[in-house]
Amino acid sequence: MIHGNPPNTIPWPPIIYLIAAASAVFLHQAMPLPWLPDGALRIIAAGVGLCLICAAIALDITAMLAFRRHRTTILPHRSATALITEGPFARSRNPIYLGNTLLVFGAGLLLGIGWLLPAALIAAAVVQKLAIAREERHLARSFGRAWTEYAARTPRWLFFKD
To answer: What angle do CA 25, 30, 32 make, to 5 degrees?
Structure first.
């Protein structure tokens, strides 16, 4: 197994999600998007948002604990020393990025900041390009056939096969 040559030199994902969320809040202050009316729909949106945030936190924590159990780095700019395929990684190859996306999206619903909804999706697309693609090449080099088999049976995000 090859573990050198990290996938990135900059830890892109947290930076991208922070920039996306900050930009959305700025845009909300400058020109808020029309939002759901008050009443039942607003309460339902907030409830769904809260559920998404809770799911995101649970997903992130279980994924972080898997990194710890396998004694490999969680840092997106460091080389992986283990291929994790259990727990949340059995359902998604990127549960932390999925969790981050759900967190931003859920915050938009909970707080009524419409700009957070497209910001979450844009951040996920940018993370796909700047981090996930590079990480997957790194994992393929490092773990060969084990990676190929894992990638073939596990969606990159959740429901979407590559």
So the answer is: 70
What angle (nearest 5°) sits at the alpha carbon of residue 154, between those of residues 137 and 99? Answer: 85
Phi/psi class of residue 28: alpha, beta or left (left: φ > 0; alpha: ψ in -120 to 50)? alpha
What's the rounded Cα separation, in Å, for the pair 90 and 86? 5
Count Cβ atoms below 10 Å from residue 161 Cβ, excluding itself: 9
Concatenate the DSSP letters of all residues of 126-158 into one string.
HHIIIIIHHHHHHHHHHHHHHHHHHHHHS-SSS
pTM recorded for the entire structure: 0.89
- Angle, CA 26 vertex, CA 129 and CA 127 arms, to 5°: 10
**Are 106 and 45 in contact, with CB atoms under 8 Å apart?**
no
Q: CA 71 → CA 14, 65, 79, 101, 136, distances in Å?
A: 21, 10, 12, 25, 19
Provide block-wise average pLDDT over 10 residues at a time, the chain (162 residues). Answer: 59 91 97 78 93 97 95 82 94 96 97 95 94 91 95 87 63
- Measured in whole angstroms, the distance separating CA 101 from the mean position of its chain's CA atoms is 5
**Coil, helix or strand for 71?**
coil
Taking each helix axis as running N to C, give the angle between helix 95-111 and helix 40-69, from 0 to 180 degrees, rounded to the nearest 10. Answer: 160
